[in-house]
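Most newcomers find our protein records easier to grasp once they have seen one. To make this concrete, we reproduce a full record directly below:

…
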Amino acid sequence: MELCTYSNNLYNFALYQVRQHYFKEKKYLSYFSNTKVCKENENYKLIQALVSNYVIRKVDIAMKSFFALAKKVKKGTYPASKLRIPHYRDKGGLFELNIPGNQIPIKGNQMKLPVSRLFRSSHPDFENLWLPFPEDLTGKTLKMVRIIPLYNGLHFKIEYIYEEPVVDLGL
C-alpha cells in the first residue's frame, strides 16, 4: 500500500529534523515545531493531515524515550552502552497508518479509507478503498483504526480501537 510508504518516508523525514536539531543545538525539537517543518514535506501532504500528525507523534515518542534514558544514564541508573538515538526506518519500507475514527466513513459492513486531496489528484485512477468493518463493532464509538503492514506489505493487520460503554458492576 503506497500510503504506508509515504508514512515511512515521513517518519524518516521527521526523525531527520529532530536528530539534526539535536546534533546542532543540543536541544530537543518539539512535536509542534517539527510539525511546522514537516507540513512542507510532500509525504505529509500525500497522507491525510491527521494521519501525518500521528506519524510525527511516533517520532516524538521515540525521541522523548531517548531523552528519558539519557537522564537515567547521567544519574547512573541505566548503562550508557545501551543508550541509542532512534534509528531511521529502511528506505522504501512501510510504516503503520493511524487513522482517527471520526475521519472514517462507515457504510454497512464497510469503511472507506480516507486519502488527501493531493493523493487523489496525483493518482487519478485511484478508486475509493473500502475495507471490512467488523459487525461486532457496530454501534460502538470507533476511536482509531491502525493499519500495520506485515511481511513487507504482503499482508496488513487492521486494529480497531473503540470505546466500550461503562458498565456499572454495582461493587
Summary: The helical segments are 2-25, 31-38, 42-46, 49-75, 117-122.
